[in-house]
Amino acid sequence: MSIFLQADSLALASEAITDDQPVEKTLSVWDLLTNGGIGGQIIILVLFIMLFFAIFLYFERLLAINKASKTDASFMNNIKLNISSGKIDAAKMLCAQTNSPVARLIEKGISRIGRPLEDINTAIENAGNLELYKLEKNTSMLATISGAGPMIGFLGTVIGMILAFHKMASGGGQIEVGMLAEGIYTAMTTTVVGLIVGIVAYIGYNHLVVKTNKVVNQMEANAVEFLDLLNEPV
Questions:
Q1: Whole-angstrom Cα distance, residue 172 to residue 179?
Q2: pLDDT tens digit string along 86-110?
Q3: 205 and 139 in contact (C-beta within 8 Å)?
């Protein structure tokens, strides 16, 4: 009988120890984003809209720049042959059939043949500025988002800390960690999301700047080659 009593007491003791042990609670990403209260949720929603907009702008501009950078390797050779042979109309037709910034610059220069070389150079520069504007269209928005994203995240941090201190002030001497959870969630999650938005937009902006500069250098090289062709002695 004593053996059975000892077994029962051991079982009850093990159950009590098991009940006293805290249950580990896992926190999903969704809970992390939504536990910050209505203020934190609004700020995170704004940040996610900015992130989506930044990604859309990046890929839209990347496709446009990649398309602008594609030029037939034989384009300038054909232009040289046509101009050297006096086939100005054929050179214009070739430019019109080629959809690229380089072709539009050369077409602008061909249309000014017969005028002073300085006028031709000015026309090409003006056309180049228009092409550069097209390439950089909406790219500045990425720079704005890269700066505004972290700032909005830090705004959420300040709001979260205000909420936490308000709970501490209104709680008097009865302050619990659970009372501060909402404010702390707001402070931390908005900071993280804001930094993510800023980093993504900043990297995307700088990558587009590098790609744009390559296209600009390509346009300048072809424009110089065209002007050298016109300046060659007959």
A1: 12
A2: 788 888 888 888 888 888 888 888 8
A3: yes
Q: How many residues does the chain have?
A: 234
The Cα 54–Cα 146 span in angstroms is: 9
Place of tokens 């209260």: 37
Please give the single-letter amino acid code of residue 12: L
Phi, psi of 181 (to 5 degrees): -60, -45
Per-residue pLDDT at 96: 84
Q: What is the CA radius of gyration of the chain?
A: 33
Q: What is the pLDDT of residues 168-215, one digit of tens each?
A: 666 665 666 555 555 666 677 888 889 999 999 999 999 999 999 998
CB contact at 8 A, 54 and 194 = no
Distance, CA of 85 to CA of 100 (rounded, Å) = 24
Burial 63-91 (b: 16+ CB within 10 A, else e): ebbeebbebeeebbeebeebbeeeeeeeb
Partnered with residue 113 across adjacent β-strands are: 115
Q: Could you give the CA distance from residue 1 to residue 79 in angstroms, rounded to a whole number?
A: 109
Residue type present at position 92: K
